[in-house]
Amino acid sequence: MLEIKVALQILKPADEVFEAIVDPAKMSNYFISESTGRMEEDKTLVWRFPEFDEDAPVRVGKIEQNKLVSFYWPIDHEELLVEMTLTPADDGAATVVTITEKSKANDDAGIQWLKGNTEGWANFLACLKAYLEYGINLRRGGFDFLKG
Q1: Are 114 and 4 in contact (CB under 8 A)?
Q2: How many CB atoms lie within 10 A of CB 139?
Q3: Are 101 and 81 in contact (CB under 8 A)?
Q4: Nearest of 64, 62, 24 to residue 43 by alpha carbon
Q5: Cα(28)–Cα(24) distance, rounded to whole angstroms?
Q6: Tens digits of per-residue pLDDT, 128-145?
Q7: Is 101 inside any structural domain?
């Protein structure tokens, strides 16, 4: 089985990183355009992305304050688990964000998913870092070419 795993250090404490992930008002500055609510355990949300006309249903899984955010979303008619783990640096001034997405068969469709979603999660982390550290929305306009 194939599994995605990406990680990046954000130069902010875990509580700020956590809030940027669970609060839709903050998440709209680097990832989504809107959400039907805050990420809370067992809640079902709908995300909208600025460059796509489709809604993305999200079923929130386990949440651990400043440590873990997990959710399930449909990819190719399967519900896949995404886990975002926050690991604070020893001094608390930085946080390593590790994202895993599980899992698809090791076949042509799985390899295409692995390629596309690994790129997507790496982009998510870069955009999160730019937003939290510099107040920049890197995503804005970045995918306009996909609109056709």
Answers
A1: yes
A2: 23
A3: yes
A4: 62
A5: 6
A6: 999 999 999 988 877 777
A7: yes
